[in-house]
Design goal:
This protein is mostly helical. Helices cover 55% and strands 6% of the residues. α3 packs across α14. It binds adenosine-5'-diphosphate and tryptophan. Adenosine-5'-diphosphate (ADP) binds next to α1.
Length: 322
């Protein structure tokens, strides 16, 4: 049973990325031959077009993931482009991909709906993602809810290939461990880099407190009782609080007579505490980046071994290799 997931190095990881995706897959680590996690830099090329920024983002992604608890003794961490077999498999899958299937995929569809021009990379992005998944015989792919569609594409393409050329690929399953974890941003909308409403996991602490104090709240009178479940600030707080702390805070909401400043201060304290060990770990890794490079190199070597085996199987199956 192999778990695999990837995350794009498009900027520093925020609370939405952590609670929606990263935390889930870090919790699934255990045996490095069974947990593969990678930095999806080939996918990020569809949006990051500055080479210096790309290099910095890859470095930050590795440090963030290791800081957040990805353990090289328990998982294989690597950079997507260090496994060139993925790009080779992408082509084989592309030859079996119906245009209509790609046209229905949301990244391209949404861009087009907004009247923006998309390139072929964004259009065919789910095929590269399918290759990422299929090349490691992945069984489980833990992701945020918005990525489930792409896992369906991987299953479809694997099914078509197997049907045409004989059993070759394992059919993967998507896994959304906690679909309720849609983390709201500072404006109450879904937290996302594209909305500019993020709080990063390793934000400078002063700046983090300031951002938290500016989180949008409603303007109802302090005395009014409020429903915690519909409040973005409460949802954010819940991610960091113990069940008892969460219940206590919910009771304060229901009773009314409190100011949001109090909740924001509690949130800032809990968040600071929550990421304190991770912050320290990240600093230690950053101070020893040669060690991080070694982790990534060893990860890539392990991933390539599996990728080469599956690519060969696929090439033999479709008759381009004997
Ligand atoms: P962004 O929207 O900031 O660009 P990405 O699309 O790169 O983030 O998301 C990376 C992963 O984090 C995905 O698996 C996605 O589902 C998850 N994710 C992103 N934002 C949130 C959020 N606000 N709540 C829950 N999960 C999220
Ligand atoms: N497309 C994913 C995202 O934007 C990242 C990704 C690329 C991925 N390849 C993958 C996730 C393979 C899981 C499996 O979040």
């Amino acid at each position: 049973m192999r778990v695999l997931s990837g995350i794009q190095p498009t900027g520093r990881f925020h609370w939405g990325n952590y609670f929606g995706a990263i935390q889930q897959y870090i919790n699934l680590q255990g045996d490095p031959s069974k947990a593969f996690y990678f930095i999806a830099n080939l996918h990020a090329l569809t949006t990051v077009r500055d080479p210096e920024r790309m290099r910095q983002n890859i470095r930050d992604a590795a440090l963030d993931l290791l800081g957040l608890g990805l353990d090289p003794e328990k998982a294989t961490l690597f950079v997507q482009s260090d496994v060139p077999e993925v790009s080779q498999l992408t082509w084989l899958l592309t030859t079996l991909t119906p245009m209509g299937l790609m046209e229905r995929c949301h990244a391209y569809k949404e861009k087009k709906a907004r009247g923006l021009t998309a390139d072929l990379g964004l259009f065919s992005y789910p095929v590269l993602m399918a290759a990422d998944i299929l090349i490691y015989d992945s069984d489980i792919v833990p992701v945020g809810e918005d990525q489930l569609q792409h896992i369906e594409v991987a299953r479809d393409l694997a099914g078509s290939f197997n049907h045409l050329y004989g059993e070759c690929f394992v059919l993967p399953k998507g896994k959304v461990l906690d679909s309720s974890a849609k983390v709201p941003g500072t404006d109450g909308e879904k937290m996302s880099k594209s909305y500019g409403n993020t709080i990063d996991c390793f934000e400078d602490l002063k700046g983090q407190r300031k951002k938290i104090m500016r989180i949008a709240t409603d303007s109802r009178p302090m005395e009014d009782p409020k429903d915690p479940e519909t409040d973005g600030l409460f949802q954010l707080y819940s991610n960091f609080a113990t069940p008892e702390q969460k219940e206590e805070m919910a009771a304060i909401y229901r009773k009314g007579g409190f100011g949001y400043g109090l909740v924001k201060k509690e949130l800032a304290d809990r968040a600071e505490e929550f990421f304190a060990d991770a912050r320290k770990r990240r600093e230690d890794f950053a101070a020893n980046y040669d060690y991080v490079k070694q982790i990534l190199a060893e990860g890539a070597a392990r991933a390539r071994q599996k990728a080469a085996e599956v690519l060969l199987r696929a090439e033999i199956a479709c008759g381009i290799r004997n």
